[in-house]
Amino acid sequence: MSRAETVPCKKYRRLQMLMFSLLGVSIFLAIALFAQFTTQGASKPTNAAGQTATTAPTQPDYIRNDADDPMAIGDIDAPLVLVEWTDMRCPFCAVYSRDTLPEVVTEYVDSGQVRIEVNDVSFFGEDSTAAAVAARAAGRQGKYAEFLTTVYANAPEDGHPDMPREKLIGFAKSAGVADLDQFESDLDDPTLAEEVAQSTTYAQQLGVNSVPFFVADGTALSGAQPIENFRQFLDSALANTQK
């Protein structure tokens, strides 16, 4: 993934300051929400390839553990799985993708310590669903992560961007999706829309009602936190896996 260059405006800085001022509350709520994860018995969502992966008995249901998962990056044998929930119209998801994710990938994924599994949700209406369907369509050609990076690199500094079909096709082209005709055909595949709906419902059953939202080794983190917070979060989780 490449890191997009951005020039924050004053309005964005005020928004970011507000977000960080609520950090303590966000973490508390995240932990409270995660308490539901181990008690929910919902059926698991499928990934962008339409697969429901077989999960190892020692892993929670929200970890797919599929070596061919197009919605995951990193070594299948990594000691830690970072599970992420995201909505492609979420401005804070875009901030995380641009400002923090590249560092997480460089420091933790490329070194083989962490695998990231992404879950898409549709929290902001039909355009969120359309964008998630498009990402899964790109995933069928091995470009799910690249599509997300492209979407978030082009996101506005605040608000929920519209996602018309023409824009989604443009994102696919920029992301390197090879067969655009197949991509357009897949945009109309009702199976993908059902997968997005299933993923959204499952997230809500787990207690995930805001994004971005992350879980690693049974601990939750909410919001577009800076890399320093992610280092602490992931280092603590990695230390637990070594006990």
From TrEMBL:
Organism: Microbacterium sorbitolivorans
Record's protein name: Disulfide bond formation protein
UniProt family annotation: Belongs to the thioredoxin family. DsbA subfamily.
Coiled coil residues, start to end: none
A molecular function GO annotation: oxidoreductase activity
PROSITE patterns found in the cross-reference section: THIOREDOXIN_2
Bias-annotated ranges (Low complexity): 45-60
Cited PANTHER family: DISULFIDE BOND FORMATION PROTEIN D, GLUTATHIONE S-TRANSFERASE KAPPA
Residue span of region Disordered: 42-64
Signal sequence, start to end: none
InterPro entries named among the record's database cross-references: Thioredoxin-like_fold, Thioredoxin-like_sf, Thioredoxin_domain
Keywords: Disulfide bond, Oxidoreductase, Redox-active center, Signal
Domain of life assignment: Bacteria
Domain Thioredoxin: 47-239
Pfam families: Thioredoxin_4
